[in-house]
């Protein structure tokens, strides 16, 4: 029966691919470390090479875990937005959630000097950036939600999201005009996106908030499936629309907001991964989609990060460029091949 | 215990169980300053196993009445009760267990299979993640059989014709296992054959399942032939009675302006004036 179809084989395959990508991601980089040594190091055996050990434990392992969190988290938040707004174009970016984060960060990095002296140094810590980004994304989402309650037309909501994007970039322009080169550089680098540079402690905090977001998403599976029928039907099936909508939006802003805060505004994943998953699995059932988006997101992000590291060279490309360069052709290919968008 | 069941059966035999009841209901829209009354003094009683049609001209307030009966819109005055309990006393989830809907709006996603869509009708009864039990499967399969759509089970909703989709939506409402099913214009966009097919199906379901089915429709001829009871909305009154009594009373003559069509009492249908 299709409803009980559990897609066991694809899931096993995806999990294997995820492990493969995970090890490949750790093994590849400016210094190539053989698979066997990566494995030995991860299970606690000595590799006999102190610097490899250090690179793996202090740099590559946290980076790989961050990639998994970023890819799966953004993918899932995109899925939640697409279902909630019943719009295939929805995603953290389009609705201005990421713009909100950017604005928050811009205000902290470039506006901090306005407060002057010691306060500035307190403000521009990693934590204040994280908090500013989260607050920014949550504020924008709340405004979008209030507006979406008044405006029935979903297209209007998307345009409003884009407007928030414009307001953000305009505000950032004004701020950058008055800020120092150093601050500007700091902001621009944040904007490139990066899954590296996270300490274990930062990763721990990111993971906690991410886990809360994922748990809320999991608890919303039934609501998400009901929302596939449209809001009036969902209500007639006993769903408390307001609560469910609030939970879905909280999960999205926790996931997208925190990830953007720690890793910068990473493009494309949130919009593309849910589409890729729907095309490949050919279902709209969130019991299947949610774990599948998780796996696809994590795998895609690991691959993109591996490429961004440019194996065997000292250069690192901005991860943002890679996600779009790799992801967009894949989506185009999938849509053209199937000729029909599954939504 | 057995005695109670016996007593209940005895009572219901003599006095058919009232599923939906309104008392002096006034419907319309209220803003802060102005109250727009669309219809008032609505007193209807719908019994178990009845097929009830709601007819009236465009803009007379059929949708407003249905929205008020389903608690989507607030009433202005009076009472609406389902199974003797005022509708506003129901929580969302409990209302979903006594009242299911088939609406005119299109589905949010047509990428669901027919089986998945009907299974969503079990939502008020399933656990937090929506897993189906053996009983749920039984009920869903029974609904597929009752609506003659067994062979569509594995199809995606975007592959269906309008007529097939309407049957699937009815099956979904059936799967919700409620005493009352309300359908908003279930025959729009359908051809003549499928209009008759859907209404005939509703008649069969009301008999077989002993559920009360209320639908609004513009198919007056068909409704007169198939319904147990009709609710006729005109500008001044809302009348509820058996179709033959309504014809005798001449209610249908006042349904529309008389310049173009007239009701033929003998034929039980409308004719274009020559």
UniProtKB/TrEMBL annotation, chain A:
It is found in: Cell membrane. Gene3D superfamilies: ABC transporter involved in vitamin B12 uptake, BtuC. The keyword Metal-binding does not apply. The chain crosses the membrane at residues 64-81, 93-115, 127-148, 155-178, 198-225, 246-273, 288-308, 315-336. It is a multi-pass membrane protein. Its main location: membrane. Belongs to the binding-protein-dependent transport system permease family. FecCD subfamily. This is Iron ABC transporter permease.
